[in-house]
Design a protein that fits this description.
Helix content: 40-55%
Strand content: 15-25%
CATH topology of the largest domain: Triger factor/SurA peptide-binding fold
CATH architecture of the largest domain: Orthogonal Bundle
Strand order of the largest sheet: 16-5-18-17
Structural class: alpha+beta
CATH class of the largest domain: Mainly Alpha
Shape: extended
Largest sheet: 4 strands, antiparallel
CATH superfamily of the largest domain: Porin chaperone SurA, peptide-binding domain
Distance between the termini: 45 Å
Length: about 625
């Protein structure tokens, strides 16, 4: 449980802004807010602010995708309740609108510089660790945004993050609450279970029952909605054979490569950190004391092992190995490159504390031959040309697809082939049709209903596609013969479960009123006894644990409490609570973890209450 508390109490405050691309999927319908649309029809109004039907449609699609991702192979689109999806998606959009209005009323704000910094620091917009404008445009275009639209969307997300932090971050808990939670959390229980298995072999189901169930639940037995796509695929790798590298460019690249080579210096150091236990003056005094001992002839490596507070190098006598410039703290590097071999520096202050630095060796750069680097340089120069060609071709493909009524012309313009997918549903298929961007485009109103070509969709940094709907297969009623076996198995399980429940309920009633004495075996089944079980005990069915810790304390040692539950397989379980054991007082570390967990939970409850208050005072019209 303590590990769960650590996991669940991690600072959502710190997570409200970071991860822009992940945030796009965190709030229902969020990626639909700025989609271009010509419709003026509204799905709802919140204090006069509109929520369009297009936003709602795309939010419903996102709800469906989230369920698909959560359930994986167990996802069955035929069992989805479309009204439930509709209501959940609309509620998400209304909540978002209310939070933005609340942020505006409370005058939350941030600078344009903070917005710029967030964009610059987003990993999805970086190449080799640095912001790349082309990459930024490519990603936001993939998501359906212009630069202005993306900035507006990000600004809204940052405002909501501020509101969440302001409301939920102010939550606190008292010592009494922590103590009470600790008593419950650390409590253990002694219990026993008796399991009565459902006898499916004894259950009988008639053809008439199957037909009646089929007729009553006809909407559950529909073929999935599916689409077939035509698509053209543009791959960066296809351009490598189309570009050439000149010899003079290779020579220039080689000269640049070897000009960047620098000598490597092998350093050793003794570090005294500035910390809560040792302030700056004390750390400096300590390093000067070690310097005096060196001056008297003591060994540097021995002193490093004894005093250095750098755990990575102290055991090796302070040895940091060979490294070039740009690796160390600037003050450390400046001092190191001023030393001669075997010389020790004066005390040096860095952001880590105080150092004594010794130069152990200098290694001249090894200059590789042109022949050894030619392959790498050729590939690098080709890659630069290919990247440019790929960006230009992607733009050409997108423009041509936008202007064309099919994919034939875009394919001819770029020498590509129109390909066709296998049928797939909203849960996705394999390969191309498992890609989230392709799924979103395939079932978007523009592609599915209006028959338009999609935007250029990035499958990965080296591949883009444009898709077009070729066939839309609507759900159809499945014949009884094709689902009869499924219905039969379901009804057999239900009948068997009902029969064993009736039998178990009678046994439970007898145990509770004392008419059936507690014995080692009941109805031919043995009790499984366990003692000192915790709330997160391994090896116990979670549903049993949940029922166990909801039970009231037994009246006495010889008067156990009883309850029951039915498991997913239809089995009936009788739970006998024999005793409740109180635990020792929590340690200070446990109290700290409990406090963080409870404060985080209280913060979430406060934020939920704040949203509910906004909703109660708002004028919300749903159409």
């Amino acid at each position: 449980m303590l590990q769960n508390i650590r996991d669940n109490s991690q600072g959502w405050i710190a997570k409200t802004i970071i991860g822009v691309i992940i945030a796009l999927m965190a709030l229902t319908g969020f990626d639909a807010l700025f989609s271009a649309t010509s419709t003026k029809q509204d799905a709802a109004k919140v204090n006069g602010d509109e929520i369009t039907k297009t936003e709602l449609s795309q939010a419903i699609d996102m709800q469906r995708r989230q369920l698909m991702q959560q359930l994986g192979k167990d996802f069955d689109p035929a069992l989805l309740d479309e009204k439930m999806l509709h209501d959940a998606a609309l509620k998400g959009l209304v909540d978002r609108k209310l939070l933005l209005q609340g942020a505006a009323k409370a005058k939350f704000s941030f600078s344009e510089a903070a917005l710029d910094q967030q964009i610059l620091q987003t990993p999805e917009f970086q190449v080799d660790g640095k912001f790349n404008a082309d990459r930024f445009d490519q990603v936001i275009r993939q998501l359906g945004f212009t630069r202005l639209q993306f900035r507006q969307m990000l600004a809204q997300e940052m405002l909501i993050g501020q509101v969440r932090a302001g409301v939920a971050g102010s939550a606190f808990v008292t010592d009494a609450q922590v103590e009470a939670f600790a008593r419950l959390e650390k409590q253990t229980r002694d219990f026993a279970t008796l399991t009565l298995a459902a006898d499916t072999a004894a259950a009988k189901v008639t053809d008439d029952e199957i037909k009646a169930h089929y007729d009553e639940h006809a909407k559950e037995f529909l073929s999935p909605e599916q689409v077939v796509l035509d698509y053209v695929e543009l791959k960066k790798s296809s351009f490598f054979d189309k570009v050439q590298v000149k010899d003079e460019d290779l020579q220039a690249a080689y000269q640049k490569e070897i000009s960047n080579l620098a000598e490597q210096r092998r350093a050793a150091h003794i570090l005294i950190e500035v910390s809560d236990k040792l302030n700056e003056e004390q750390a400096k005094a300590k390093i000067e004391e070690i310097q005096q001992r060196l001056a008297k002839g003591e060994d540097f490596a021995a002193l490093a092992k004894e005093f250095s507070q750098d755990p990575g190098s102290a055991s090796k006598g302070g040895d940091l190995g060979y490294a070039g410039k740009g690796v160390y703290d600037p003050a450390f590097e400046e001092a190191l490159y001023a030393l001669n071999k075997d010389q020790v520096s004066a005390p040096v202050q860095s952001s880590y504390g105080w150092h004594l630095i010794k130069l152990l060796g200098v290694e001249a750069p090894s200059v590789p031959t042109f022949a050894s680097l030619k392959g790498k340089l050729t590939n690098d120069l080709k890659s630069q040309q290919v990247e440019q060609r790929f960006v230009e071709a992607t733009k050409q493909l997108e423009d041509s697809a936008f202007e064309s009524s099919d994919l034939v012309q875009p394919a001819q313009d770029l020498g590509l082939k129109v390909q066709t997918t296998a049928p797939f549903g909203r849960e996705g298929g394999e390969g191309l049709t498992a890609n989230r961007a392709v799924l979103q485009a395939a079932f978007s109103p523009e592609v599915l209903e209006e028959g338009s070509n999609s935007n250029a969709l990035e499958l990965d940094p080296d591949t883009v596609v444009v898709v077009r709907s070729k066939e839309h297969r609507q759900p159809e009623q499945l014949p009884l013969e094709s689902v009869a076996s499924v219905i039969r198995a379901q009804l057999i399980k239900q009948h068997a479960s009902a029969a064993v429940k009736a039998k178990g309920d009678a046994l439970l009633a007898g145990l509770r009123d004392g008419k059936v004495p507690v014995a080692a075996k009941q109805d031919g089944q043995s009790w499984k006894v366990m003692e000192a079980v915790t709330r997160s005990q391994e090896g116990v069915e979670p549903a049993v644990l949940q029922a166990l810790f909801r039970m009231p304390k037994p009246e006495g040692k010889d008067k156990p409490a009883f309850t029951s539950l039915t498991l997913a397989d239809g089995s009936y379980v009788v739970v006998r609570l024999n005793g409740v054991n109180q635990a020792a007082a929590p340690s200070e570390e446990e109290k700290t973890q409990y406090r963080r967990f409870l404060a985080s939970r209280a913060g979430q409850q406060d934020f939920a209450a704040y949203r509910a208050q906004l909703e109660s005072k708002a004028k919300i019209e749903r159409f």
